[in-house]
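re: that complex we talked abt at group meeting.

here r the seqs, copy pasted straight from the sheet so there may be weird spacing, ignore it
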Amino acid sequence: MKRHWRYLATVAVVAVVAAACGGGGGGGGPSGTEIPSGGIQAGGTLKLATPADIQSGWDPAKEYEIIAYELYRCCLSRTLNSFRLEGAPTDTNPVPDLATAMPEVSVDGMTYTVKIKPGIHFGPPFQDTEITADDFITAFGRVSSDVGSQGGYPFYFSVIQGFDDANGDPAKITGITAPDPQTLVFKLTQPTTDFPFRLTLPATAPVPAHAAEGHIKDYGRYLVSTGPYMWEGSESLDFSVPAEQQKPVSGYEPNRAWIWVRNPSWVSERDTDPLRPAYVDRIEVAVGGTVEDLANKVDAGEIDFVYGATPPSTQLQKYLADPQLTSRLHAEPTGAIRYITMNLAIPPFDDIHVRKAVNYVVDKDGLRRARGGDTVGELAGHWIPDMLTGGLNAGLDPYATPNGQGDLDKAKEEMKLSAYDSNQDGVCDDPACESILTITDKAFPYPEQNAILTDSLAQIGLKLDVRMGDRYTFMYAKCQDPTALAAFCPSVGWGFDYADGGTYGEPLFSSVGIGSSDYSNLGASSKDLAKWGYSVTEVPSVDDKVSACSQLPVGQERLACWADLDKYLAEEVVPGVVWLFDNNVVITGPRVINWTFDLSGGIEALDHIALAGGGA
Amino acid sequence: MGRYLIRRTLFLVLVLIIVSFLTFLIFYKLPAGDAARRVAGHRNTPEQIAQIRVTLGLDKPWYVQYARFAKGLIPWPGFFLNKDIYYSYASFIPVKEEIYQRLPVTITLAVGAAVLWLLIGVPIGIVSAIRRRSAWDRAGMIFALVGVSAPVFWLGYLFLFIFWFKLHWAPGSGLEFHAGLLQSIIQGKFVLAWLVLSLSFAAFYVRMIRGNLIETMSEDYIRTARAKGLSERRVIFKHGLRSALTPVVTMFGMDLGVLLGGAIITETVFNLPGIGQYTVQSIFNDNYPGVMGVTVFATFFIVVANLVVDVTYAFLDPRVRYA
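got the structure back, here u go
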């Protein structure tokens, strides 16, 4: 999920109350501004802006932000597998990209063999170098490094034999071998049916060994492209001199600009890439500026859209109200959720009836209004988004209330069933309800949402002791740490790294996620609970269900398994309150056509977006 | 004079050490400061955070950490803001590179605004002082009141909205890709920023010059000058203004020094990639080496500006002498 952190945090900062009316745009696939009758004309410069620079200097082994993921996928880095965005909008399963076909899997599910397309070359200055198996091994070597993957997602590759012990030395990853230049063999420590998904992650894109030397920390500014675009100035990279004497690409000016131009290698080998139409010739992203200022630039036609930030409320209102403009407002579900966690090991949340009562009483619509209104997403009633369960739980909401505004009567009925309402009046009268340690983000809109939650919960006798702080150094630190005894964490969001239920199941709901992303301590053992200082000795666990789903092959059975887990969580476990299926909201300028949303990444697909008249 | 300069230079070093130490304490030792957690992002484990702490050197005792940073403040090649210590914890981009690339933008903004506020503030202040209670004086004081009262962030957005978004008289925020400084100036990219920044400063200068000049013009030596038959113009500019401007020089030096350390709000509002904008980005990203580098850099400018002001004093005011 971490790659969504910036997106979610950005929305938190900039989203403001918008008009409560339906979002425009489409729900995946080409939509938005009409494609001219003559078809799409390639060419032109796509001009974008984003309020802040990327977190980790564009190093694919470190970047874990959604906007970076998409830019690698669309533009800079081809991987063994990727996604087909056109033709089947709901298909988020991987397809071969640099691989000739999907991996061959051994009978025991522990060995994956991948054949690499021959004759594909790196971008400049390695335009004469063909991509081979060794270049992938180099990439995995970088990811295995503590420094090289700092802040990244090496945990997805721990299933490869020897990976965890390699620490930057590709030769030590015994689980990856190259019998010939066009063949890669992965040997895993356990069956991992979603492994083909993991081969879509940008960190696995091939890296020329010569280019990686001396750039374990800062490869992003020396990145050699394999996609349709490359950093402007890539042809001037000189890897023949020592790393400290090399000059980085001119197209990346930290905190100021990202500029990509056509990769000539890709252009000449275009027929090897059926996944990326890459319509525009050049992509320029201006970095910096306030969201309001950037919104004005969209209105003024100076830029085509703002990348990675939700439009301000004034702009949203304008585009929602004006039928002429509505087609330029795009709101699509990202596959991310926003939710509130309850610590199952802390009274009164050790009682499922209290947790259900909380679900009934929370004003989800109020929380959404505080965030920006209908446009920012659909009210949620279950945990795993529909696109990860094949839509099997679409519409599931065990705690549905009128207009999502809470139902006090039902909440009180549940509270009466709990052990914390001795006089059976539907209001908690136990001391455990007096001061519930609530840890939350201090940034907008969480203080506003806190006020709503405090009022809602007070109606059933739950009194929040709210502590607010910085999202990273305070909120995450306290909510992640089981010894911090945080009872209620209301400012949490989660999205998928790839479209598989496993990216929700394991980190959020299994004991593997405790200390990291399972804030409810779901699956904690009695021994651990005692060690961490809890009086509650037992909490529910879905470890076995998560494990069972994870081992199923990708397909309908697996989707159904995740759907069952989702239903079980919503009805029988209730680890919190899930209240929003998040939308990606973008307003585009008049030049933008063929607006396409990348469901696999939860963000717009820059390689499919084109400019009217080829940008002329 | 030589001894004075040596003394002041040693004082500069002392100030830099104190400021660097305080900055270190604030950003490294106060409870909110855990850069490792920030770098680790959302999905992390205690082991990963511990590993990052080791990588960043945050596991060392505080005095070792401070010593590493202090070494980077020594103005010597290989030491000063060296990239082994002074780099962004997340992107690994050297702080020195960021500061050096941004310094020209900040200098352009600060110097341009300074020229403008002197051109605006000094004449209005003089006119207000010598035409007391006239319509000119009232207008000058209203200007000063508005300038002092209007915050830069408000004025900045207002100017952008009116002069760029509505009237299209000026370019919007930000600089063009790869545009040189001169090119940006010619494109008018600094005009609104200069104007906004200078208005608030000019307002202070108007009030100060007016007050000082009024007070000076009632001094005995001014009466004497008039009695000797000097022209009013000569009395004001030769005798009155020279004395009245002495405190202005102090103020100007300090203001310019502060701005050279980064006009944080103006650069943010107008999206100018200067040191001030970098400071904001560093603070938001817990990029402590960036904050340290900028703080010490800004302190350096302020202390040097102070020194220059003190030396200039001797030329402007004969009563000031250096022991």
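couple things i noticed - Chain A touches chain B through 54 residues (CB under 8 Å). Chain A is about 25% helix and 15% strand.
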